[in-house]
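Subject: Interface between my chains keeps coming out wrong

I've been trying for a while to get a sensible model of this assembly. When I model each chain on its own everything looks fine, but I need the whole thing in one frame so I can look at the contacts. Pasting all components below, labels as-is. Any help appreciated, I'm running out of ideas.
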Amino acid sequence: MKVVGARIPRYDGVAHVTGRTTYVDDVRVPGTLWAKALRSPHHHAGIKSIDTRPAEEMEGVRAVVTHEDVPLNVYGHLSALGIPADEPLLAEGDVRYLGQPIALVAADDEDLAAEAVSRIEIEFEERPALLDVRKAFDADAPVIHQWGNWYPHFEAEMDRRQIRKGDVAAAFEQADVIVQGAYRPAAIEHAPIETQVCQVVPEPSGRLTIYSCTQALYFSMGVVAAHLQCSLNKLKFVGGTTGGGFGGKVDTATETMCCLLALRSGRPVKWRWTREEEFLCSSTRAPWHMEVADAVTSDGWILGRKMLTLHDAGAYARFSPYGLTKHSFHHTGAYSIPNLEFDGYVVFTNRSPTSAMRGFGVTSVSFATETQVSRIADVLGLDPIEIRLKNANRIGDTSPNGVVYTDPSTVSTLQALAESTGVELSAEYRTMTSEPRTGEWLPEHLVPQLGNPEEH
Amino acid sequence: MNISVNGVAYETESSPLTPLLDVLREELGITSPKAGCHQGGCGACTVLVDGEARRSCILPAAYADGAEITTVEGLGAPEQLSTVQQAFVHHYAAQCGFCTSGMLLAAQAYLNHGGTDDPSGIQEALGGHVCRCTGYLKIVDAVAAAARGELFDLTTTAVGKYTTLTGGGVE
Amino acid sequence: MATAALAVTDEIEVLLPGSEAEAIEAFGDGKDVVVVGGGTIVVPEMTYGRLQPRRALLLKDAGMAGMAEDGSRTTIGSATTVDALVGLPAPLGPCAANIADGEIRGVATVGGNVCAGAGREAPRGDLQGALLALAASVRSAGAGGVTEEPLEEFLPKRRERLVLGISFDRPARGAFAALDRPHTHDYTALAVSGARAGDGAVRLAATGGGSWGVRLPSAEASADEPERAGAAALADVDPRDDALASAWYRKKVLPVLVRRVLTELEEVA
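Reply #2:
Try treating it as a single job with all components included. I did that and got this:
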């Protein structure tokens, strides 16, 4: 193999440094119309009436679309993973987050499109907004989603992602100390230097050429085809060049609207978001609320864990059930904790729907687990690296969802960390391996969770 | 307005108040400077105006009247890359590439003004440029290497401080 | 041509005076005209449609830049770039150096900075704090003709005046302390400027303590006791929550910056 292990330059490196890489907004098609969106100014409101005629009647305005123009307005992007549809492409009847798109205008120039948007007559009826996941469960909380305030469609129609393993009650009985922590990482905006942008060109053949900044070309193609109720071969996606995405360009947030405007007007259409739109309206990494209680022995074994996660999905489910599921599988992180009680909820709030971002679902729980283990070391007066090595995943240990580890790297990573930071470990920790537990590294409480790595 | 871009003279029609970035991209079709924020906050739009690095998204066209503008194409073409362009390729200083144009021009201005390989000097000069991909280390390494006047083997990338792969280029 | 740009339109009348006198005449009483020094603050406002004037007055050719020293008095033309101030002694020099980055400083003007309105996401008008500490006076034009007045009196009406120049007496000693963030091009969340005049009188002012630069008279009253002055300064400010920092955090940091500035002012040069 000539390439694996070699240091090769990027195939697009020279193009990047000479200004020749063509991003979507660099694509220039004569006759292109410019799109602007009418967005909700409210966190939560009913739409009492909407009249787009004042915009349509303006000279230079070539198309205006609302939910009525979308062949299939509500489509679940992850319906293949069993997540049913709840989010409209364009708002219908109500708006559930500030910035939610309601109508799109295509006009001869951006100023005109923006002016036309401001002329659309729309009447709202404000409703109470839910902005704190902890309040979603209150009896008097406003109900903000047709499914209730949290996602109810996990397998067997459960309303949470649940993991039960071993006997957590016994673990908490046997513990010398219970260590608790609450962890609330905030939302993070991807902030790619290139904002969301799309250029659609209607071809004489009847196909649509779509220049997209999506990270997921074929996935977005499927989403557009579903909304438009057209066959895939009607769409020619041109992509693969993105000015940064980090998970924020998987929502197919612009393509379908531009296709509708192009079909309606017969002209090429471009929609490019301003930086303000990017910050206010695009998806973010979700905020999380996690509560962890660990049952520990005074010599540093973690016997069991109880955990509650509230994941803030924003106004619609989007990919959140998938993210929470991954989160639940990894909720013990690099360590083997045999007795578990995990409950996670995908909670709706009147915020921008949250979405994927690097390490979707797992970064949050890694942060909580690592901080929690350091906290335990603090409370017990133990060395933070040694306590990690003690509880580290080994070959034959099982994950929260029963996957048997065949090649875990916790031990070697911690040893490399100690060496590179000049921390001297005692002999037994320095020579520890990831081989299946034996002797003093296999206390009784860890036996029931062992699996057979050979069978994997 | 009369502006010269990379040595080519143009007579532009945009209002004198139009930001130079929009004159370049929309009127002249020179799309290498990028619109990252349109408020001067990210540096993706930076061009050289009479040799000085300036944010083109907030510079009224009037302020470029009679000036010589340099965009990244003016630094070098694929057949003949400038030192700093080569440095960026060899040091893997561009990932998505969207901030790269602005970074290169700011780096070139820094070097033209006698900038050295001192990392704090480089960070001061490029401090207005945001990159969401690289974490900046390789950009600083690239500019430092260019400041030292290094020669670059473009068939391979540099061994960085944090690189674990030590294999050479493709045979 | 129909521009595809954001809201900067062809419909704004652009005025390019060739001298200070022409600029004063074009400005008139300042109604419905936006003054563009370097444009670093007002051009984004126009791009995003928050500022939609009928007329824009561009100062680039009006010859209003330059610095002069006459005895102990320094006079700075309003179109002088912020960058030109960087080498000056504290507080003005370090205050200017702390603004944005070189690309912005090379275009932004002193006049534009002094006239900056309150920012939505961050305090603006960094130089206001340093100039207040220096007891600067402002020469400006507008309704009622050309006048000169202390900066403190000028600030409330800065949106209606055309700044021509700023002047101040060089202090015996100056100091500047800012809440620093790692990325050099951030706006200043909070900064304190101080100046000690020849007669020993101390003036203090803050940026980020309110909508624009403010004096800190309560701190000045205890200027010889930095610890006490730091705590007293809280009475002079009304900071807001914004994108850079919370009001709470600014109140925590202000006493520290005041103490640092006063301690530095006490040092013998």
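Reply #3:
Confirming on my end. Chain B touches chain C at residues 13-19, 22, 26-27, 38-41, 43, 46, 52-55, 57-60, 62-63, 106, 123-125, 127-128, 130 (CB under 8 Å).
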